[in-house]
Amino acid sequence: MANKLNSALLDKAITDIIAFANGETITKGKEDLKGKKRNFTETIEMQVTLKNYDPQRDKRFSGTFKLPAIPRPNLKCCMLGDAAHCEQADRIGIDSMSADDLKKLNKNKKLVKKLAKKYDFFLASASMIKQIPRLLGPGLTKSGKFPTLLAPSDDMQEKVDEIKATIKFQMKKVMCMNVAVGNVTLSKQENIVNVQLAANFLASLLKKQWQNIDVIYVKSTMGPAIQIYF
Asked: Most buried among 15, 21, 36, 210, by the most CB within 10 A?
């Protein structure tokens, strides 16, 4: 699919976002904006507004796409594992819980909710994934964090990185969507490629493709929104 984003506009937007996050002054419109360096890694978000789309009548879409560069490296993972997987998680610095650890939660809704809140996503060994509803009840499913299966042949670090690099577009009842597509520690080129691929993927999910996209902005967590598609 042809890329409809203006590459000069996108290049300038990402350059400005990174400069602003590094405390430099950028010009937006006719205004000078003084940046500020934060003590955390700012995410770069793509904000999209759709048009000619009726969320009530048109088919709702959903799709996931793996970006080449990880937009949110700080996502927290917990491995719900058998002995071998728990040991492996320990070696690569990932939190883990065994079946016995989960039993201690005693299906307590508050404790399960607290567990779901503490982590961004979960992995589970094949032997554990079937037991999770019995051990924890529906808490993880309700919070949209039911674990991803880690097969015995899978490399744990690769799987974690794959999930961190995967973005999801899902049409709900509103016409606006936000998705993390990069961060200010990635290179300019890595951010540009991520934005282009994410926009093309979203267009491929839509009925009339680019004709269903009204505007696209990109912004860092604390920075101004910069329009890259009109």
From this structure: 21
Spatial CA neighbour of 53 closest among 226, 205, 219:
205
How many alpha carbons fall within 13 Å on the CB side of residue 47? 11
Q: How many CA atoms lie within 13 A of 27 on its CB side?
A: 2
Of the chain, the end-to-end C-alpha distance in Å amounts to: 18
Torsion of CA 75, 79, 80, 81, to 10 degrees: 170
Residue 60, pLDDT above cutoff 90? no
Assign 3-state DSSP to the chain and report helix, strand, coil percentages, each to 5. 35, 25, 35
Strands 226-229 and 213-220: antiparallel
3-state secondary structure of 188: helix
What pTM, to 2 d.p., does this model score?
0.84
